[in-house]
Specification:
four-stranded antiparallel β-sheet; alpha+beta; single chain; Alpha-Beta Plaits; 163 residues
Length: 163
Amino acid sequence: MPVLSGAQVLDICRSDPGLSNIPIIVMTQEEEAERDPLTGLYSGDFFFEYIRQIEQYNDAPMDAIVIDIEHFHLINEIFGRDEGDRILKKVASLIESELKDGFGIACRLSADTFFIYHSCPEDHMAFANRMIAEMDSLYRAPAKIRIRIGINKDVDRNDTCEQ
């Protein structure tokens, strides 16, 4: 957490004759722009920026995971937005619990797509199975929630993070 706010830094610079002639560019960043307001996960833009920073300072192998809720628009249409939001929050919660076991970050890239970038655990199948079991427990057939999970083990650092 910063010790001084941006306004306090500007006040100090204005009042100090040695600093008052230095041009200052003020940029603000709102928490809402960095995080998805519904799930609390990172937004896509910040996610990719943080990946670039991680890759710059971390040589450990990292995995990229994509999670997609199939036909999510139908969930919203049939059960309503509140129910769709409940499912998205559940997926985000499962992702956050997965990240507690290692180093990494996650984002909600679009309405029904999530990205995870984290240190390589022993087995992603356990996470995938937990995710599937949790989604299955939300509804019974024929209204099952189907998810697709793609895993790229030990990401090639020569690729751009968006790839």
